[in-house]
Write a structure and sequence with these properties.
0% strand, 4 helices, mainly alpha
């Protein structure tokens, strides 16, 4: 998730979710060049967990939920908002 969180700004070439995925993969391959193995870990929290409740209190407002597909346009959505 650190790599995803570092993507707070996106190049103008990222228009769809597919473009974002390709950008992520390219960046990952650049960072891990020469490695024999890459292990990606994405964390999630159960909706009734203490961590999730803490996140909800910090947000202060209801999160936005997106229906995501490869062709979903994210051109006008700031990365911080999209990743939140």
């Amino acid at each position: 998730m650190v790599l995803v969180q570092k993507m707070t700004t996106k190049p103008a070439t990222i228009i769809t979710v597919k473009d974002l995925g390709q950008h992520f993969n390219d960046h990952l391959m650049t960072l891990t060049a020469g490695s024999d193995e890459i292990i990606l870990v994405f964390d999630t929290y159960k909706s009734d967990s203490l961590k999730q409740k803490t996140r909800e209190k910090r947000q202060g407002k209801d999160p936005v939920q997106y229906q995501i597909a490869d062709d979903t346009s994210i051109k006008h959505i700031p990365m911080g908002r999209f990743l939140s």
